[in-house]
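*** Residues and shapes ***
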Amino acid sequence: MRVLVVEDEDILRVSIGDDLKEAGFKVSLSKSPVLALDLSDKEKFNVAVVDYKLPEMNGIEFLEKLKQIQPGCEVIIMTAYGTVQTAVEAMKLGAYDYITKPFPNEELIINIRRIAEIQSLKRENIELKEQLKARHGFHNLIGKSKSMQQVFSMISVVADSNSSILITGETGTGKEMVADGIHYSSSRQNSPYIKVSCALLSRDILESELFGHEKGAFTGALNEKKGRFELAHTGTIFLDDVDDIPYPLQVKLLRILQNNQFERVGGTETKKVDVRVIAASKADLLEKIKAGEFREDLYYRLNVLPINLPPLKERKEDIPLLIEAFKKKYSPEKVLKISNHAMNCLLNHDWPGNVRELKNIIERLAITIGDGTIGCSQLPEEIICRKVDPVEVSMEKSSFEDIVRDTETTLIKRALLQAGGNKAKAARFLKIKPSTLKSKIERFKL
C-alpha cells in the first residue's frame, strides 16, 4: 500500500510519515504540490494525504490534477480550516474523506486501512469478472480460420445490440458458447442469463417454462410460477434448439419478440419484459418453413442478426489450436503430445460431431494416457480406419489416367497414415507387394 503525503509543515509531514511507515505502509513525502504531481507521474500511489492550504495550489486544485494522472488513487484532504462548503466541494471532486486538524494519526491510519480493504475488494471483483470472461467470453471460441475470424467479428458487433440473434450450425459446432460469449461481452453481462433447451420439453411444459403460469392454471399448478422470460428481465434468454418449439407455441414467442409482452399460462394480466433473445438452431429453418413446421414471420423476427458456425471439417486449420486448448484444459499438469502421424489422422477425419467430438476424444486420451505421446494406435477406430468413398475421388479430371493416379495416391497416403509410416504394414493394408508399393511411392513422388 503506497501513500503520498503532501504537507508543507515540516514537523507534521515527518510525524505523519513516521507513523504511517510504522503501520506498514510505503510512504513518500513532499512539501510541494508541484513536485508531488511530478512524482505521481513516475510512481503509482493508492492513497494521497493532502493538506488543503498549500503553496502554489490548494488541496482541491491538487486533487483535480492528481485524479487526471491517477484516477484510482484515493485522496484524503486535511485542513485546519474545515468548513462544510470545502468538504462538499472536495467530496464532489472525488475525495475519499475530509479530516480536520488537529487529528490523531491513528484516525488517519484507520481511514487508509479502510481504503486498502475497499481497493482489495475492487481488485477481487475485477479478477472474478476476468475469470468469468475467460470462461464464457467469445475469445474462448478458438480459431484462426477466416470463417471463425468472421464469427468473432460478428460477435463483437452484435454483443451490445438489443435485437434478436439467430445462431445456426451443425450439432457440436459451439452454438451455446457463442451465445455465452455474446452475453458476457455485452452491457447485460451482470444481468440474468437464462438458458432454455426447447428440444427437451413437451409443449405444455415448455409453455409454462417460458411464460410461467398462474395458480390453478392446470392440474399440479399449486402456486404461481414465473417463466424464464420474467426471470431473464434486463438480461438475456438463450433458446437452444428453437427449431423444436411446437408450431402452436410459436405464436406466443412471436408476440414477445414483437412487443415484449406475454401472459402467463392461465392468466389474463399482460406482462412486459426487457429481454434480449438469442436463439440457436441445428436445422435449416427455411426448409422447416417450406414443410409447414416453422412460422415464417417468427423466423424473420429471430433472424435479425444471423451468425452461422462452420462445421469443423470446413476449418481444419483450427484443429491443432483446438487440440492444444483441450490438452491444457484436461491435462494441465501432464505432458501429452501427439505424434505427426496421429495428427495427420485427426486432420483427415471428417468430424461429424464437430468440435464436441474432438473435445471428447482429447478428454478421453488425457484420462487414459496422461503423460506420453499419442500415436495412431491410441486414436478411436473410426478415425484411423476411415474408408475411402469413391465419390470423394475428383471426377473433374479429363483423362482416365489422371483419375486412376489420384485414386491410387489417395489410397496410398491413407494406408501410410493408418500404418504410421510403416511401408510393409501399409502394403498389407492395400493387399499389394511391398515392392509394388515402393515403386508407386517413387513414381508418384510421395
In short: Residues 2-127 form a domain with the Rossmann fold fold (CATH 3.40.50.2300). The chain has four domains: 2-127, 141-310, 313-384, 390-443.
